[in-house]
Amino acid sequence: MKKEIEEFIQFMREQKKHSENTCVSYNRDLQKLLTFCQEQQLQNVSKITPLFIQSYLFGLEKNNLSTASVARHMSTLKAFFSYQVTKGHIESNPMNHLKKPKVERKLPIVLNEFQVETLLKMPDLNTAKGCRDKAMLELLYATGLRVNELLELKLEDLNMELSYITCTALGRQRVIPFGKYARQALHIYIEQVRGQMAKENDNTLFVSLQGKKMSRQGFWKILKNYAKMSGIEEEITPTTLRHSFALHLVENGADLHAVQEMLGHVDMNSTQVYAELSKRKIREVYNQTHPRV
Q1: How many Cβ atoms sit within 10 Å of the Cβ of residue 58?
Q2: Can you tell me the distance from the alpha carbon of 260 to that of 216, in angstroms, rounded to the nearest whole number?
Q3: CA-to-CA separations, 264 to 12, 75, 145, 176, 276, in angstroms, rounded
Q4: pTM score, two decimals?
Q5: Which residues contact 177 (CB under 8 A, 6 or more apart)?
Q6: d(C-alpha 236, C-alpha 220), whole Å
Q7: Per-residue pLDDT reduced to its tens digit, 249-258
């Protein structure tokens, strides 16, 4: 079964254009299944039955794997066996009649608008680093980009005249507008600062102080430092700004389909969480302020 797993991961990476993180997650889940199969002396994927899978999943639960993790495992297995059906290795998907455990959706951590405004004021615009950081933070909040998408941006992806970026991720391209604050910060960074940092012929939009491509960890440290300076007590990550971007759009009346497009969500369910979060915040405000609650 090792060969089938390798072929599936290659298919997901090269044909389906899934991210490397997703492929690593798939492989990790399937290696656990492979270990279980080896322990049960089952070597052929065609011998796997729904009852066998139920036994495997029960073992995961017994080992205190969270409900969300079990549900993720089931999604991985369903995709894997679906691929085996298309390849003719098995006749039917053993996952077809197995129900996922109900997972309570965790609402994302977000910043309010005042916190975001405070955070965005932290970079020191008298330094090259501060100008770069300001441009990165403003663009991240203005567009809701994933951090890897932000760090992969090239100069040609940026249209300063019409104030939008073109982002390509997972084989899909989307165009995202940004406002005057991000435009101003980007203008200062590109015209006054970037030439001091970037190496010649390097078209990466944001680079480190050493002129290299910035890492996710490097940006996370930058954000964490500014969050500390601004007095934000929540443990925030780059994704926190992405969530805040989406929630603030929804709270101000943005259409969910437009937000879905800007975020690059394939499934509307992923975007729906912001509407749910907005309703919850409204209820909290009502409970705290209405005199006859």
Answers
A1: 11
A2: 24
A3: 18, 20, 9, 10, 19
A4: 0.63
A5: 143, 163, 164
A6: 9
A7: 888 888 888 8
